[in-house]
Amino acid sequence: MTVKIITDSVADLPPQMAKELGITIVPTNIRFGEKVYRDGIDLSAEQFYHMLRHSKALPVTSVPSLGIFAEVYDKLAEETDEILAIIVSSKLTAAHEVALQSIGLMKRRCRVEVVDSQWAVMAQGFIVIAAARAARAGASLSEVMALTRRTIPRVDFLSAFDTLEYLKRGGRIGRAQAFLGSMLRINPLITLKDGVVEPAGRTRSRAKAIDRLYDFAMSYSNIEEMAVEDTDCPDEAEALAERLSPMFPRERIYRSKMTPAIGTHTGPGLLLVAILGDR
């Protein structure tokens, strides 16, 4: 039987890609005021960013429940006897721990393995895509896990923030806390390192920050996958994707407005380049 792949909505996978590769996405919960939405199901990215800009209430996220993961496992166990869940960095949310604990609540017999991707957004997404393609090609669960672990150090991303206020409020700011003490108007650059938010530099202008994203992509000698993502700054994202097209085919660059699960913690104005490849 084909190994079934699961991830969470933080991976920001394009819905059509997930459908084509048979990837199951477990949605993060978004609480906005008194209402709770399932990321990507009850609340689209467009709706979310409109609410974020116009609502006085600030959103918060929560991980899916133990029961939700167990239900997903049991449903997939009707079709396979091997499942791999590739989850957002365990240092950012409790989703990885919940995914692990949920195995004990399953009603069906099935081997389930959970891997900490150590990443988020499309860096995590590229790991999931690679695993799903291997599974569809007939790889065993052990083989897919081995490929996943080899892929983790081959992904990276760099992002330019308009503000760090949302990261600060959400408690996900990590070592980028050092940026908050600056009295200067800066454009911070952020990445993840070992699953934790890390500062990656700062510039004095948005244009120079975008130049840094371009230089980041140009530092690769081999690119297998590329994504340009944004939190409600699509014009800048489109311009950057077009600028990168001479080095990587424009039609293969994933373009997306980042999921509300990310936008809740970053706010609007985030621009990000994610890559699977080799420097």
Number of DSSP strand runs: 13
Mean pLDDT: 92
**Low-confidence residue ranges:** none
Strands in their spatial order, largest beta sheet: 10-9-8-13-11-12
Please estimate the helix content. Answer: 25-40%
**Proportion of beta-strand residues:** 25-35%
Gap between N and C termini: 36 Å
Write the element-wise H/E pattern from the N-terminal end onward. EHEEEHEHEHEHHEHEEHEHEHE
The shape is globular
Major sheet summary line: 6 strands, mixed
**Given the structure, what is the number of helices?**
10
Structural class category: alpha/beta
Could you explain the architecture of this structure?
- The protein is of the alpha/beta class and about 280 residues long.
- Helices cover about 35% and strands about 25% of the residues.
- It has 10 helices and 13 strands.
- The strands form 3 sheets. It has a 6-stranded mixed beta sheet, with helices on both faces. A 4-stranded parallel beta sheet has the order 2-1-6-7, sandwiched between helices.
- A hairpin with a 2-residue loop joins strand 3 and strand 4.
Task: Give descriptors for this structure.
279 residues, alpha/beta, six-stranded mixed β-sheet, four-stranded parallel β-sheet, 35% helix
Summarize the structure.
This protein is of the alpha/beta class and 279 residues long. It is built from 10 helices and 13 strands.
Secondary-structure blueprint:
Layout: E1 4-8, H1 15-21, E2 23-26, E3 29-32, E4 35-38, H2 45-54, E5 60-62, H3 66-76, E6 82-87, H4 95-101, E7 111-116, H5 121-136, H6 141-151, E8 155-160, H7 165-170, E9 187-193, E10 196-203, H8 206-218, E11 222-230, H9 234-244, E12 253-257, H10 260-266, E13 271-278
Parallel strand pairs: 1-2, 1-6, 6-7, 11-12
Antiparallel strand pairs: 3-4, 3-5, 8-9, 8-13, 9-10, 11-13
Helix pairs in contact: 5-6
